[in-house]
Structure formats: structure tokens, C-alpha cells
What does this fold into?
Amino acid sequence: MRTLSRVRRRAAMVGLVVAMLLSAGSMALAGPIPGPPVPAPLVPGTPCTVTARACADLIGLQAWLFQNGRILRGPVPISIGDELDPTPPGRYQVEWKAKDWVSREYGTPMPYSVFFAPGGIAFHEGSLQTSSYGCIRMERDNAAAFFDYLQVGDEVQVHSDVPAVG
It folds into this structure.
């Protein structure tokens, strides 16, 4: 009888210790419940975050170049696509560049092209008086500056839903 009683006490004690260890372990692992990632802050006066190297505002028809979260150039005026060939908003990376590109689809010159979105969407020199086929056009000196500054892999943000702040 005593042996059975000792076994029960030991089992109860082991169970209690295990329960305490498990409870302490789960409490040690517990912490603040993670929420959604905190977005990077905006570059003042723009709709883009400090992680971007180039920014375009499709509503305000403006673009910028950033260095370390500060405006390096801009705002510069831009022309964008229309309803049939819209400029796609989103976050992209510069894919490639061509100084003297001619569109294979439309046969039109695209000097200082910086391609960043699927479908051949690029920053490039072009008329600001008419809409593009989805590209972001700018005056020659601005297109040359974007071409010279941006490198393959740089982040490009294109916004159509966030008004400029600041």
C-alpha cells in the first residue's frame, strides 16, 4: 500500500513539475502578438516611402528621384498612359536600361529608357502633351537624369491612390 501511495505522489509531483515547465516555457515564448509589418515612412511631399529610389504620382503627374529617403530631383512633370493603356501602379525594380531604345511594338523612339514594369513600361523621354502607351514620359533633361541615376535593382514606386502629403 505504501509503495502504491509513493508512486502516486511521485507521479503527481512529476506531473506538477512538467506542467510548471510547460507553462513557464509557453509564457517565455509568449510576447506581443505580431501585427502587420510597419510600413516605411513616406518621403515628405510625396506618396512614396523612403525605400524607393524613384517615385511617380499618377494623380499629380509628377515624379522624383530619392537618395537615402531625401528628394534628389523633383517633382518633375510627367505624362502617363490613358484608359486603354494605363500606367500600372505598384512597386517595381529597375529591370534594364537602354539609352537609344525604339519601341518594337509602336516603332517610336524611347530615349533614355529605364524599364521597370512588365510589358515594357519605362521612364523615358517623350512628349508631355499626349498620353503614352503606359510608360512614364518626361522632358529630355529629366529623362537623362533618371537614366543616369537609376540602376538595375533600384526600387520604383508608382502611385495612383495616395495623394501627395506635406
User: Anything to note?
Assistant: Confidence is low (pLDDT under 50) at residues 26-31. The chain has two helices and nine strands.
